[in-house]
Amino acid sequence: MRAALVDYSSSGSEGESEAAARERSGGEARHGPPGGRGFSPPGSRAAMPSLPLPDSVRGMFRDQEEKERVEDDCGKHEGRLRTFPHERGNWATHVYMPYIAGEDFLDLLQLLLICGRTYVPQLKGQEEFHISLSQGVVLRHHWINSFVQSLKGRLASCHRFIFRADRVKVYTNETKTRTFVGLEVSSGHSQVLELVSEVDEVMEEFNLMPFYKDPSFHMSLAWCVGNMSESLGGQCIQEMQVTSLEAFSFWGTHCPGRRGESSGELALSDCTASSGLGLTPPTPPQFLGTLSVPKRRQAN
């Protein structure tokens, strides 16, 4: 038995059918008794209400959804807040040059923390160190491998260079919810900018935001919650600047210098893409740049 499918493309089609029925019957077309099955007034269609989903079905995946849900509990992250909400399948990512800190550098960090905490007691030292080459962006999970491969291809031809960081500076994030103390890159800026331009090309491939215009490249040393730029600025930053110069002056005497100068050098490995998966390029790191902090000249 075959069921016929009838398609009414407009209200005019119904009117023509009714007129033909009147001519055949010599009277009014019959639609069946009011309220009967399939009855609806001419020219109108009643919307069928959807059936509610049974509670037993709705509860089948409730436990799994609760496990996957990520709450922004700043108490679990030392007061830090997300700059954008977490969504399933999205991975917060940024590109940076990592630095593995040695004992001398960690000694410098402790000296700066002692100085900074006299003005902002809640100042905390960074546990990992890097120089950022991109903003924080969001990658879809299935983009990650392609993103890393594009980065490696773009940066494969970059040559090793030397750049210097010798200025202590205070920074805040875009939302002013955190403040940082960092060492700003003072020379070699153009070479780092070339790296950023390559990273920006990859960002464009994935329709992601490029790096900031006129960036201040730096390595964060310490941080605190809130906008504490005024408290850490002025006298505090001057004292930390003197402390860093004195510490690196001592450190530099133990480092072979270039062209007759002594200098402290921080080796930076190749660019790394950091995501929620903790991704790094699978190849062994090769030195892409050397961060040089000059030895302060001793008074005669």
**Helix/strand/pairing category:** alpha+beta
Distance between the termini: 110 Å
Assign a percent range to the helix content. 25-40%
Radius of gyration: 33 Å
Sequence stretches where pLDDT stays below 50 over 5 or more residues? 1-16, 25-39, 251-269, 275-290, 292-300
On the 0-100 scale, what is the average pLDDT?
71
**Which strand order do you get reading across the main beta sheet?**
2-7-6-5-10-8
In N-to-C order, the SSE pattern is HHHEHEEEHEEHEHHEEE
How many separate helices? Answer: 8
- Tertiary shape: extended
Strands, total number: 10
Main sheet summary: 6 strands, mixed
| Beta-strand proportion | 15-25%
Commentary on this structure:
The chain has about 300 residues and is an alpha+beta fold. The chain has eight helices and ten strands. The chain has helices at about 10-25, 55-60, 60-70, 105-115, 145-155, 190-205, 230, 235-250; strands at about 90-100, 125, 130, 135-140, 160-170, 180-185, 220-225, 265-270, 270-275, 285-295. The strands form two sheets. A six-stranded mixed sheet has the order 2-7-6-5-10-8, with helices on both faces. Strands 1, 3, 4 and 9 form a four-stranded antiparallel sheet that branches. β5 and β6 form a beta hairpin. It is extended and about 80 Å long. The protein starts with 10 loop residues before the first helix and ends in a 6-residue tail after the last strand. Mean pLDDT is about 70; it is low at about 1-15, about 25-40, about 250-270, about 275-290 and about 290-300. Interacts with PLRG1, CDC5L and PRPF19. Keywords: Hydrolase, Lyase, Nuclease, Nucleus. It catalyses: a 3'-end uridylyl-uridine-RNA = a 3'-end 2',3'-cyclophospho-uridine-RNA + uridine; a 3'-end uridylyl-adenosine-RNA = a 3'-end 2',3'-cyclophospho-uridine-RNA + adenosine.
